Amino acid sequence: MFAYAVRRALRKSKTLRYGVPVLLLIVGGSFGLREFSQIRYDAVKIKIDPELAKKLKMNKVSLESECEKIKDSTFDDWKNIRGPRPWEDPDLLQGRNPEILKTNKTT
């Protein structure tokens, strides 16, 4: 008898039907968010192995060194090639002859 009254109250009361689950989601979400954000702070506290730190310092690449590599290269001989759309044949679009490619695939 009591279970029937509880089920009927749950069906009729909009607060119990919609409000309580929303409040549980908000409160549970705040606890979950706290745990996930704590992971970020715990990861900062982890010490790096000194040997690994030494290797990382030796292999450090700077922005200036990469800029020097790019300055020395020439970009005068590059060709802009548009990629194919799904309904287009990529071999025809990029200037390759499809008959030659078919013969190469079969042999």
UniProtKB/TrEMBL annotation:
It comes from Rangifer tarandus platyrhynchus. It holds the Pfam family COX16. InterPro entries: Cyt_c_Oxase_assmbl_COX16 (IPR020164). It is found in: Mitochondrion inner membrane. Belongs to the COX16 family. This is Cytochrome c oxidase assembly protein COX16 homolog, mitochondrial. The keyword Protease does not apply. Keywords: Membrane, Mitochondrion, Mitochondrion inner membrane, Transmembrane, Transmembrane helix. Its main location: mitochondrion. Signal peptide: none annotated. It comes from the Eukaryota. It is a single-pass membrane protein. Residues 80-107 are annotated as: Disordered.
